[in-house]
From TrEMBL:
GO terms for cellular component: cytosol. The active site is at E111 (proton acceptor). The keyword Transcription regulation does not apply. Catalyzes the reversible conversion of ribose-5-phosphate to ribulose 5-phosphate. The keyword Chloroplast does not apply. This is Ribose-5-phosphate isomerase A. It comes from Cypionkella aquatica. It comes from the Bacteria. Its EC number is 5.3.1.6. Homodimer. GO terms for biological process: D-ribose metabolic process; pentose-phosphate shunt, non-oxidative branch. Belongs to the ribose 5-phosphate isomerase family.
Amino acid sequence: MPAELSPIDKAKFVAAKRAVDFIESGMKVGLGTGSTAAWMVRCLGERVRQEGLKIVGVPTSTRTAELARQCGIHVTSLDEAKWLDITIDGADEFDQNLALIKGGGAALLQEKIVATASDQMIVIADAAKEVQQLGAFPLPIEIIPFGWQTSKALVEEMLVSMDVLARDVTLRMNGERPLVTDESNYILDLHLKRISNPRQLALVLNQIPGVVENGLFIDICDIVIIGHGDGRVTVR
Ligand code: 5RP
């Protein structure tokens, strides 16, 4: 373990390290995005260097692709790999059904495509990400820039029609400008506080013209590996 880690980084590191034990030579591996996933990429790179592990990585963002290459991991596209053995990624929240909110790092679209194209998705998270009910973390949705204000209004209207009480919707910014994703889209963050029916909300959001994808991952995650600040790991 790297020396001098804060408890939160230690939690992320131990979860990442345990998840990498699931990877075997010959596997095609989806590489998630975010600070926890970055630990996983570093740990995987170490196994590639030290054990000569032969794997192919499919990154879920340009950031992850860059880090994976730096760590000596052979990187390819999903179209080249076609189907993956395993994807390991972080999450912003997970509940007891292993439903997730993702997209805090604005990579939800590629993350959902890659995880869905995998036999198994493992989520790695620090213990603070576990919730009774999803929604305290603002739900990100990816929308196309064309007519984004109309799409935002349609999302707000839909939330009213679903009797959602807390429904502040904000455009994610990068300084003075809208944040632009790897797919050249924008992100809306839905401040909902509680999501009573994640499955229904995920379906309804994706019906709105201009919405490309939402950050609710339902029935996609198979295992959550939880890291704790004292170095313990638990598995759900
Ligand atoms: C990126 C994501 C990340 O996995 C999520 O935001 C968790 O990030 P971190 O590990 O930095 O807390 O969904 O789009």
